[in-house]
Each structure stands twice: as C-alpha cells, then as structure tokens.
Design goal:
Elements: H1 13-20, H2 27-37, H3 44-53, H4 59-73, E1 77-84, H5 91-94, H6 102-109, E2 113-118, E3 122-124, E4 127-142, E5 148-162, E6 167-174, H7 177-197, E7 207-208, H8 216-225, E8 233-245, H9 253-258, E9 266-269, H10 277-280, E10 288-300, E11 305-313, E12 328-336, H11 345-367
Antiparallel strand pairs: 1-6, 1-7, 1-12, 2-4, 3-4, 4-5, 5-6, 8-9, 8-10, 10-11, 11-12
Length: 374
C-alpha cells in the first residue's frame, strides 16, 4: 500500500456520503471496516451511513474505499432504450447538431461534474439514420491518496431510426455513474426537441429494459437464451450467475438447502453453470430471481480472434432488489494472441458488443416485453 499523506483532504459530511453511496461500496464492505474498528451495529442498513457521517475515517480506511471505487468505473458498459419516433426525414436532419446550452444544463443538474467534451451528432459509416455523439466529463475523484484530484470519463449515445417499426433504438455507453447521468440528461433534452418538432409526443415515454418487465420465469428464460452462439461468437459456458430466492414463491427442496441460512442473494461461479440444477430444471424458475449471467465466448472476427467474458443482466438489482434496474452489457475480459497486439481494443470491444447485441435484440423481440411495434 502506498504511503498516505494525512495532511491532505479526507472527505467528511456530504462529500463522504457521495463516496459511501457508490454502488461499488456494498454494505458488506462498510461492515468489514467497522468490524476492524471493533464496532458492531444492530440495525445496520438504517444506521451505517449516519454513523460514518458522524465520525472520522482514517486515511487507510479511505484508501480501502478508493480501491473499491476504481474496480468497475473505467470499464465501458452498454444498454439500450427505445422511443416511438415518426418522421419521413433522415435522422441526421431531425437532431440538432449539438444540444443547446448542454454544458450549462449539466452544471445546473449534476453536482461536481463538468462537461468537457460534447461532439456534434454525426453519421456512423455514412448512414444518415444511424448517428452518434460523444461526451466527456471531468469529476472530483477520491483517489488512492484521497486528495480531490479530477478524473475524466467518456460516454456515447447512438441513435438508430427504424422506419418500419417507427421507433428509435438508443444505444448508451457509460464508463461511470456521472457519465451515465450526462447521457440520461442528453436523452431528456433530445426528447424535448423531438416533442417540439412533432416526431414524438409528450405522452411517448422512453422504454427501458428493466427487471420488473419480466416474471421470474420470463426473466430466467430470457437471460439464459442470450447464452448462445452467433456468427462471430461461440459459447464456451456460463461462468457466473447472480441469483436470489423470491420473497413470495416457495423454493424447491434442493433450492431451499442452497439458500438456507436466510440467504438474500448468491453469486455462483463455475465453468458450465447451465448444468447446475437451478438453471437446468425449469421448475425452479418461478421461485428464483435471476439477475445476472456471465458467459465465456470464443470470438472470430475478420481481423482478430480470441476469447472474452461478457457479464449481462440487471447488475444494479442487488443488493436492494431495485425493480427498475436496467439490463446492461459489460465486457469483463478480452484475451487474444500477441499477434493481434496492434488491434484497436476499443473498436474490438465495440464489435463484440455489436455481435452480442444482435443476440439480445433477437431474443428481446421474442419476449415481447418491449413494445417494438408502436
């Protein structure tokens, strides 16, 4: 561990609260730090944040929290939203080159976030009905020395017009909570612009793939259906699942044994979990809340081949069982031979994302949880 300069800033009060509420810092991690102090709290969930805010934390404790913050923030994650859209014009003609006064909107709505880049909407591969804009923000980041250095995160919004189904497919790329908030704000501004132009109506809502759109059985079937092959992806196996017992439905006898001890949620790791009895026996689906799946693939693209791991599902559902958690795709790992070291890894990840997204769209259409025909 590097030496901590204790003369530098240690967050407290609301600044510390912003850190502790980060989803990467779980209740278990907060409890672990307190145990090392010899502190035990009975009503943990209700009292833990107020306790931290009323006490000081040491530089070493803050260093520990900083490592947790770093774990996933820099990794790009993608999700898709949908919006009814009706216009005979090409999509590039329907959007403003830039969202008017967007930097000021970000400043007013997002505390501690500064928009440093906001590109024009541009065509993707010359397609006037497939466009994208990129964003970059600067945030206050509590790093390993816990000094308030600034950090930059990037994100992207891609819009694709489907004139047959009269809708927009909105692909959203994020690398941090802050850039996710900027993307959401940009979509709100675009929706307002489309309403004024008559391409959408005020009543039209952006449709999201959320946990509560599915019954337990539908969700299990949908998530498992994505663990399949495509033109460029060959499935090796399911390597990780995030699962919990339903609060109401009765578990099978075997599942009860696994969930004994008042288990709230469970992460199971393996090499071929599709053979695990929880997933192999469909009679379990009604009583199980399957939230995430990690799959291992071999990929074969024209310019590169190797292996990758993709984590997908409703990763924000646990630990608070957030029914509005959105479906997201996260490429956890990409490996390839040294012969491909010159490959642009961002483009490679984009191509893997795109290939897996084809699987997702196919199975989503089958599930009919999103109104694709409006």
């Amino acid at each position: 561990m590097e030496m901590i300069d204790t003369s530098r800033f240690l967050p407290y009060g609301l600044t510390l609260e912003d850190v502790l509420l980060n989803p990467n810092i779980t209740d278990a991690k907060l409890r672990e730090v307190l145990r090392q102090r010899g502190v035990f709290i009975e009503n943990f969930s209700d009292q833990i944040i107020p306790f931290y805010l009323s006490s000081l934390i040491s530089p070493n404790e803050f260093y520990y929290f900083s490592e947790l913050l770093r774990t996933k923030e820099d990794r790009e994650k993608k999700h898709t939203e949908y919006l009814t859209f009706d216009s005979d014009r090409d999509l590039i003609q329907c959007v403003p080159p830039k969202i008017k006064n967007f930097s000021e909107h970000v400043k007013q709505n997002l505390r501690g976030v500064t928009l440093t880049k906001h590109s024009n909407f541009s065509q993707v591969k010359g397609n006037p009905n497939l466009i994208e804009a990129e964003f970059e923000c600067e945030t206050l980041n509590h790093n390993s020395s816990w000094y308030r250095h600034k950090n930059r995160f990037s994100g992207k919004i891609q819009l694709e017009k489907d004139p047959v189904k009269k809708r927009l497919k909105i692909k959203i790329s994020t690398t941090s909570k802050e850039i996710g908030n900027i993307n959401s704000l940009a979509i709100q501004e675009l929706k307002s612009h489309f309403d004024k132009k008559g391409y959408t109506t005020v009543e039209d809502e952006v449709q999201k793939i959320t946990f509560d759109l599915f019954s337990n059985e539908e969700r299990c079937a949908f998530l498992l259906s994505l663990a399949s092959n495509s033109k460029s992806l060959t499935l090796k196996g399911i390597t990780n699942i995030g699962i919990a017992p339903d609060d109401v439905e009765e578990l099978s006898d075997d599942a009860k044994k696994l969930m004994s001890g008042d288990v709230n949620s469970l992460i199971i790791r393996g090499e071929n979990l599709s053979k695990n009895f929880l997933l192999d026996d469909k009679s379990n689906f009604k009583s199980l809340e399957l939230a995430t799946i990690e799959v291992s693939y071999e990929f074969e693209l024209s310019y590169c081949h190797g292996t990758c791991k993709i984590l997908y599902g409703f990763d924000k559902y646990f630990p608070k069982k957030d029914k509005k958690a959105q479906f997201k795709i996260d490429i956890v790992e990409v490996k390839f031979d040294k012969a491909f070291n010159s490959v642009n890894q961002r483009h490679l990840r984009d191509d893997i994302f795109a290939e897996f997204d084809l699987i997702k769209e196919k199975e989503l259409n089958k599930s009919q949880v999103i109104d694709h025909e409006t």
